[in-house]
Write a structure and sequence with these properties.
alpha+beta, Protein Transport Mog1p, Chain A, 9 strands, 27% strand, disordered C terminus, Sensor domain-containing protein
Length: 240
């Protein structure tokens, strides 16, 4: 197994405890596009200072969570499965940036196979490239796999990757850390990716873990027939 690929499998997930009423779907039931979108992270799930981002804004900037030039690596940060739902967020115009994607694979077996393919893609993509920067001034950068840790107890099983960016062909450049977590909840996968400066800032380190935990919790609740409520410790919510 590659050193940068970390996997966690648990016998059941403890993110939520759900009592299902008759007629409510179980986590093994398929979700439509509307329910998948309901399961996505939204701005209120983030700490103060974060806001929704869009593909159009990312295209104008020329940077964010990267799209690998190598097709074989694109599945690391997005899903090509029809009906997948995605959202993006940014803390400032220069990052960090977060994208999240929820996918219904139709069956637990298909979701397991998709996660296995993600792991295989990670093995093929210990280095990948991306063009970043505003139109007409883009440069090619390289992302190289780095060791890291997987947040524990996410869904039925989970995998995480870490990369560090440098200018292609040079030993130095603006240091950027890129992380992605993928977790399985029954027949569904959710992935959360974050790209931001790698300056050893303790305030920014570890931000992805609570985002991934919240993403898994929301997907589990929707898969169980519930409607996610805003986390009470986030801005814009009220503790009753």
């Amino acid at each position: 197994m590659n050193a940068h690929l970390r996997t966690v499998t648990v016998a059941g997930f403890a993110t939520l405890s759900l009592a299902l009423a008759p007629g409510q779907p179980a986590a093994d039931d398929s979700l439509g596009e509307a329910r998948l979108r309901e399961a996505l992270l939204d701005a209120v799930d983030f700490p103060e200072g974060w806001a929704s981002d869009s593909e159009e804004a990312a295209e104008r900037r020329g940077f964010g969570v990267p799209e690998p030039s190598e097709r074989r690596c694109r599945e690391l940060f997005d899903s090509s499965v029809d009906g997948s739902q995605s959202a993006g967020f940014a803390k400032t115009e220069t990052g960090p940036f977060v994208t999240t994607t929820a996918t219904d694979h139709g069956s637990t077996g298909e979701a397991r196979a998709a996660l296995a393919e993600f792991r295989a893609a990670a093995g093929r993509c210990e280095t990948f490239h991306a063009d970043e920067g505003p139109a007409g001034n883009a440069v090619t950068v390289a992302y190289e796999a780095q060791p890291g840790e997987t947040p524990g107890g996410l869904g039925d099983e989970s995998t995480a990757l870490s990369y560090r960016r440098s200018l292609d062909g040079e030993g130095a450049g603006t240091p950027v850390r890129l992380e992605v977590v993928v977790a399985r909840v029954g027949p569904h996968l959710v992935r959360v990716a974050q790209a931001g400066r790698d300056a050893g800032d303790a305030a920014e380190e570890g931000e992805l873990a609570p985002m991934a935990e919240r993403a898994v919790a929301k997907l589990a609740e929707v898969a169980g027939g519930g409607t996610p409520a805003p986390s009470p410790d986030q801005p814009g919510t009220t503790r009753l």
